[in-house]
Amino acid sequence: MALSVAVTLASLGAASLAHAADAPKVAAASPAITEGFAQDRLSRIAGSMKEQVNKEMFPGAVTLVARNGKVVHFEAHGYLDQAKTKPMTKDALFRLASMTKPIVTTAAMMLVEQGKLKLNDPITAYLPELKDLKVETPSGDVPLNRPIMVQDLMRHTAGFVYAGGTKSARIKKMYDELNIEARESDITTDDMLKNLGQIPLAHQPGTVWEYSIAVDVLGLLLERVEKKPLDAIVGDMLIKPLGMKDTTWWVSGERMPRMAEAFDSDKEKAWMLKAYRHAYDPRGKSYFKGGAGLVGTASDYLRFAQMILNGGELDGKRYLSRKTVEFMLSQHTVGMAGSTIGTTGPGYGFGLGFGVRLDEGMGYTPGSRGDAMWAGAWGTSFWIDPKEKLVGILMAQGPSNRIHTRMLFKSLVYGSLVK
């Protein structure tokens, strides 16, 4: 909606009215601005998402932007289903994939604040099944130079890997054959840990950042600390009090029609589906994945992201101290090998559960030094920008196109921020 503009030209005398047709044209009114965002520019998001749907990058998406705690953009685009018969809805459910990791890491940091856990605790104090781990080298497996610490799990420096990402053919084979990622069938917590204890690490702890199952292991560690399942831990500590009513590890039957789909033609879909247990309660059958298992909505995830942006508080309830949040969003991989570039693009390091922007000029998109983000392999992504007091959330199910889509959305959002 255009803003009205009152213009006074005091220098014009009454006689000049006769020559009004010759007067200079007054500049057009500025477009509507909401919390610093130009609405006409934000409207570009809808057109761009429609184009992605038409190109079959994904059937549909939900986009959400908030600034200063106020939602300035919240739209559904395209379709819920790959047959394109059901319009996408704002309350659609998406497989969050690795956007689970920041939530589980936050729960772990809450336990650290409560004195139930320390970042420098060796993980074998809670997971003795891993006491005999060794590190693979070209000349054979060797002992660990130091124990894996809880902090290593939060920042992916433990030496664990993902089977699909490791350069070690031997470790990949063992992960697959021992079903570490529960891709081929269910696997219980005890069996997963017993099997993991037989596989060498890819790196000495604390030397290399490599994306991995580390937060899955962190989730199992939290279960040992709290003596209850991970879904109950995270539910009681974060999901329920934050009001994230649709966020869960499994989707009950009446909510299944709200699940967003990916195209069968997406070459990564079938492989991705193997790792998800959202269609049934895995309790007693397979472990809850702390690194990739949650399903949720854009509005639910905003509740979590806004709490982090607020320094650990939302709606008068404090979850973490301001200093703990600052610590989580600082660089924790200084001097280590490895790079987050595959998820974040250049210019980022890694904190505890979040990729952290180190340099404004190195990224693929505009942003601010200190902004924090993560994303999911299904096509979801989010970031928080403390400098601009901004949250951006993209929910889509297009695994093969996820990097393109997240960079596109972030560029559109910052291209709309004018004040």
Keywords:
alpha+beta; 28% helix; two-stranded antiparallel ribbon; 419 residues; seven-stranded antiparallel β-sheet; 13 helices; Beta-lactamase
Strand order of the largest sheet: 4-3-13-12-11-10-9
> Could you give the count of β-strands?
13
- Report, as a whole number of angstroms, the end-to-end distance: 18 Å
Helix content estimate: 25-40%
Number of continuous helical runs:
13
- Examine the coordinates and then state which fold CATH places here, giving the name of the CATH topology of the largest domain: Beta-lactamase
Following the backbone from N to C, one meets helices and strands in this order, namely: EEHHEEEHHHHHHHEHEEHHEEEEEH
CATH secondary-structure class of the largest domain: Alpha Beta
The fraction of residues in strands falls at 5-15%
Going by CATH, the homologous superfamily of the largest domain would be DD-peptidase/beta-lactamase superfamily
Please tell me how large the radius of gyration is. Answer: 24 Å
Mean pLDDT across residues = 92
Structure in words:
This protein has helices at 39-42, 44-54, 100-113, 150-155, 169-177, 189-196, 214-226, 230-242, 269-273, 298-309, 322-328, 341-344, 402-414; strands spanning 33-34, 37-38, 60-67, 70-78, 94-95, 295-296, 313-314, 317-318, 348-350, 355-357, 372-375, 381-385, 390-396. It has 419 residues and is of the alpha+beta class. The chain has two domains: 36-90 and 241-414, 3-Layer(aba) Sandwich (Beta-lactamase); 106-226, Beta-lactamase (3-Layer(aba) Sandwich), CATH 3.40.710.10. The strands form four sheets. Strands 4-3-13-12-11-10-9 form a seven-stranded antiparallel sheet, sandwiched between helices. Strands 1-2 form a two-stranded antiparallel sheet. Strands 5-6 form a two-stranded antiparallel ribbon. Helix 3 crosses helix 8. Mean pLDDT is 92; it is low at 1-24.
